[in-house]
Amino acid sequence: MPLRQLVPAKVRACFPALQRSDFIFFDNAAGAQIPQQVLDAVTHHLLECNVQRGGRYQKSREVDAAIAQARESVALLLNANHPDEVAFGMNATSFIRLVSLAIGLTLRPRNQIVVTDMDHEANIAAWLALQSNGAIFRWWRMREDGKLHVEDLEPLLGPRTRVVALPAASNAIGSIVDVASVSKAVHRFGGEVFVDCVHYAPHGIIDVQALGCDYLVCSGYKIFSPHMGFLWGRRELLKKLPAFREDFIPDEPPGKIEAGTFIYENVAGMDAAVRYIEQLGRDLTEESANGSRRNNLLAGMSAIRNYEEMLSLDFLRLLRDSGAQVYGITDEHRLSERVPTFLFNLPGVSPERLTDTMAAAGIGVRDGHMYSPRLMQRLGLPYPEGAVRASLVHYNTKEEIARFGQVLAAITPDA
Ligand SMILES: Cc1ncc(COP(=O)(O)O)c(C=O)c1O
After folding, report:
1. Which of 59, 86, 152, 232 is most enclosed, with most CB atoms within 10 A?
2. What is the mean pLDDT of the chain?
3. Is 124's C-beta closer than 6 angstroms to any atom of ligand 1?
4. pTM of this structure
5. pLDDT digits (tens, 9 = 90+) for 358-409
């Protein structure tokens, strides 16, 4: 489909927070800014229908409709078979634990779980907690090149493999994982694939059919929505999942995995966030192209991906020229294997001082272990100091990278 290039100024004009100051948001992996239409959707919800769902009166029906609409939008974002495969909740961590608790109840005779040393700790700890249920763990370790290789996973699989839990992309070093190949390998043994898509989601196309996975979790607040999370699972698996629910809740997805009330206005915001990406795609697509919602999402995400690769190239060159040690993929020919999330250290400068200096210059980056302490250990980094992470999204610009570079260049080694 012919696609025009994303225009940074136009994108930035959609995000009110970017207009309020010249602060540089380079900590997007911890949460992104929201477009005006998301803000409007949240405000609309709070003003017009801030009531409980399931009532017979009009405002309550509007809440039901807003949730149904959001489910449809998120299902489109993921290319899910059915909106009922999408559940809304507080965040990704609570969903990972919800699924792990349920799987922990049904571990026999398949009790082997594969976890990686590249994940956010949420997608490790929730599985390791199943030790008391009799789970046996296999560690899929990252190689020196900053990648998880499927050849290294294959020997860990067998007829007792129950789940392989993996990231779609690392929240610390930005490497993308080949989830589709993982799914093929795991399914040969009848196991299930649980994908933490939190970090990948704002950066590229998600297609659960093409990925072939069984569960996938996301945090809306990383994808230009307010704080919330969602879980997708194959309908037949969600139906079987022994999740906690009150007796009066039918044993059917999505209700059975949405314990209690979630934050409806933020779900309305998530719906608007999906529509924002669609609009981006629609605006960048030639008139002749087919304008289905999914096609617009594909166009929006492709434009984001193309633009972010340019940012990655600039950022990696800047880090290289400044003498920084970069962890993860640095090869300019392998930018398609990463998202614009960079973990690095400047020789002789503590991560803490570097981020303090950036903060004083109006630039938000993060230091520490990035909630991936095992990855830090794998990289030989001290705990908890770790390293510095700059995580960019499609509203960041080359000019911001240049300003970051000027501040970096002026930093002298620690006394
Ligand atoms: C890759 C990844 N997984 C899981 C989480 C936890 O997400 P949440 O805060 O929605 O529980 C994060 C948060 O930063 C993350 O980056």
Report:
1. 232
2. 97
3. no
4. 0.98
5. 999 999 999 999 999 999 999 999 999 999 999 999 999 999 999 999 999 9
Q: Distance of alpha carbon 247 from its chain centroid, rounded?
A: 33
Write out the two tokens for 366.
Answer: 């993060």
Q: What single-letter amino acid sits at 240?
A: K
Q: Which atom of ligand 1 is nearest to the CA of 219?
A: 10
Is the pLDDT score of 287 beyond 90?
no
Paired with 112 in beta bridges are 136, 161
Residue with tokens 């017009």: 48
**Two tokens, residue 266:** 């933020």
Q: What is the DSSP letter of 221?
A: G
Distance CA 188, CA 206 (A): 23
Give the integer Cα–Cα distance in Å for 43 and 383: 42
Instruction: Please tell me the predicted confidence (pLDDT) of residue 201.
Output: 98
Q: Which CATH class is domain 8-33+307-409?
A: alpha beta
**Type of residue found at 385:** E
Tokens of 38: 């998301």
Give the span between the Cα atoms of 134 and 122, in whole angstroms.
Answer: 20
Residue 122 alpha carbon, nearest atom of ligand 1: 4
Cite the residue boundaries of each domain of the chain with CATH code 3.40.640.10.
39-273
Cβ atoms of 135 and 161 within 8 Å: the answer is no
At residue 291, the pLDDT reads 82
* Region(s) of the chain under CATH 3.90.1150.10: 8-33+307-409
Which atom from ligand 1 is nearest to the alpha carbon of 169?
1
Work out the angle at residue 106's Cα, subtended by the Cα atoms of residues 104 and 215, and round it to the nearest 5 degrees: 70
Sheet holding 192-196, edge to edge: 86-89, 229-233, 215-219, 192-196, 161-167, 112-116, 136-140
Residue 342 has pLDDT above 90, yes or no: yes
Contact 212, 187 (CB under 8 A): yes
Encode pLDDT of 200-223 as tens digits: 999 999 999 999 999 999 999 999
**122 CA distance to ligand 1 middle (Å):** 7
CA dist 96 and 92 (Å) reads 6
Domain 39-273, CATH: 3.40.640.10
Task: Say which residues have a Cβ less than 8 Å from residue 254's Cβ, sequence separation at least 6.
Answer: 71, 84, 85, 86, 87, 88, 238
Distance 373 CA to ligand 1 centre (A): 14
